[in-house]
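[Q] Does anyone have a clean structure-token version of this?
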Amino acid sequence: MLDKNKKASAGPQDKTVAEPVFALGRQLTLEYYDCSPEALLDKTAVENALLRAARDSGATVISASFHQFVPQGVSGVVIIAESHFTIHAWPEHNYAAVDIFTCGDNIDLDRAIHAMQASFDAGRVVVSSDMNRGLLADSDDPGHGTDTACNTPETALSKSDTLPISWQKTWEAKNPSEVSVQLDLYACDPDVVQEPEAVQRFSEQLRPRSKDLTAGDFRIIESARVSGRLDRDSNTVYLDVASPSFYEPREVAEFAGRFFGAGHYKLRVALRQ
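[A] Here you go.
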């Protein structure tokens, strides 16, 4: 871990820029990979993990609010006297994104990070950013009067420095030959899994004659190729869906989850050239 009050690196300074001497807060963004699916599926378990991390770190917990998404996924925040812990979990990718903001120097961030790693049974944790927030200049600095805000040069957000978070935009940028999705559906409805033609029936609902038909809010894919395997002993369904026309992978996953009555799912996406 880095020092608790790491000074942010400064770019070229001009004569009007005051040197920062103090920060109002510190913010960490954390990436938890290869987590246990069970640890991320349950809202209460995720909430307890963040509460435990906050308390173990020495933070003063004020309140917590968490939400369970359907069919899966959890978001939540723990408000602490020093600021907050937040999380969003993607069980389908065994991944959780965590943000810790603190305006106090009495929090043991290492303990918080390791506590959540243990709770999520994460194989890997990455500190993707560690920054000071609210940089202040010396109020006694001649020429700056009582204005203690650090007059650092403004930096515009550059879209070229960020990756797309939309599969459609990625599709448009790469212009691949097809989009392919691998789906693992767990704890499925035994009655559906036992059907000999379950995958065929799913495929037919996914590829009707008219591409204008919809199932709920999901637009059906006319050109999709579907293959699958049913594990009737474990009520698990393994599907591959590929199409030369774009479709939203998550919509297909949720449609498949509803069709097979799945408790939860894993999702892998490939854009094939």
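[Q] Thanks! Anything notable?
[A] The domain at 167-272 is CATH 3.60.90.10 (S-adenosylmethionine decarboxylase).
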